[in-house]
Amino acid sequence: MDQNPTVAIVQEPPVFLNLAASADKAVEHIREAANAGADIVAFAECWLPGYPVWLDFAPGAALWDAPGAKALFRLLAENSVVAGDKYLEKLQALSRELGVFIVLGTHERDGATLYNTTFTFSPNLEAPLPHRKLVPTYTERLVWGRGDGSTLETTETPWGVLGSLICWEHWMPLARAAMHAKKEFLHVAQWPIVKDMHQVASRHYAFEGRCAVAAAGSIMTKGDVIEGFRSLGLSEPEADAMLESMPGDAGDFIHNGGSALIAADGSYITEPVFDRAGLVTGKIDLNVRREAGQTLDTDGHYSRPDVFELTVNTQPQPGVKFRD
Fold first, then answer.
1. Closest CA to 298 of 229, 203, 205, 216
2. How far apart are CA 125 and CA 296, in angstroms?
3. Which phi-psi region, left, alpha or beta, contains residue 266 (left: φ > 0; alpha: ψ -120 to 50)?
4. What is each CA distance from 299 to 34, 154, 207, in whole angstroms?
5. Residue 156 in contact with residue 185, Cβ under 8 Å?
6. Phi and psi (nearest 5°) for 195?
């Protein structure tokens, strides 16, 4: 095994809103990445089966009782993973078969609530580890519930600790501090698109945490969105109309990628890739992390535990607790 691991970010469109077809596509891309030598494969935020783009682009998406928004939520719920289901089991088996670590953004359904959940698959585990986004951002609250500290997970790898956060969690200082305390060697930063400020946040995280960062963004045209939705073969005119109401032509990008790999000193290993689908790959030099620790270790010699203290509640927070 190479001392320095190779990371591949899958910057490819899912089959939008089609869970089964997107899961099959994920398997193809993971095999492609593994055949290209990847040890760790990462996907963008809720790649399976696609970011709910109507929230940002469809006029009327946030109106109370909007038929199109309700229909799209229902279809998304029907195409979300459930803990232990066949889609997650298939990806876990693939991780073991190929010997690769997989970090995959999903929509997860638990009861009637959806969560923006990243699952990390390890060849050494029986089931993937989930991380639910702590705070859905702005209009995302129309779709997702809030996660809790019980899923602030990391995964052990032969090279060190692998962790991830989702989108605007990278602007939650205490979440960053908690993750830095876990001493990641690689952090997967998942975004819808890795635009300018998201590049800033990803590079800052790498510098602050003294860890490499895989900034993973998605790529989708309006045509990809419409075609994926219609692949479900359903008659859903209100949902179709809401997606069609998004501005632009079929070939126009809704998300245009921006995936990049960043070293532990904040420099780029692989420069951002925009407007092009494919694998974004690079090799992590672990010596950079070790050398960068000489000047900054926010959970070590550059911390002041006598001044600052952070307590993280990792207990699950159910709404109802039953006791004998």
1. 205
2. 32
3. left
4. 33, 16, 13
5. no
6. -75, -175
* Tokens coding 115: 């969560």
Helix (H, G, I), strand (E, B) or coil at 46: coil
Which pLDDT does position 1 carry in this prediction?
57
AA letter at 148: D
Q: Which two tokens stand for residue 184?
A: 């990641």
For residue 209, give both structure tokens: 């945490």
Tell me what pLDDT residue 199 has: 98
Distance CA 271, CA 136 (A): 28
Which residues belong to the active site? 45, 133, 167
Q: How many residues does the chain have?
A: 324
Q: 290: part of which helix (H) or strand (E)?
A: helix 286-292
Burial class (CB in 10 A: 0-12, 13-18, 19+), 32: middle
Q: What is the pLDDT of residue 113?
A: 98
Q: Phi/psi zone of residue 292: left (φ > 0), alpha (ψ -120 to 50 degrees), beta?
A: alpha
Per run of 10 residues, the mean pLDDT along the chain (length 324 residues) is 90 98 98 98 98 97 96 98 98 98 98 98 97 97 97 96 98 98 98 98 98 98 98 98 98 98 98 98 97 96 96 94 90
Q: Residue 164 is which amino acid?
A: S
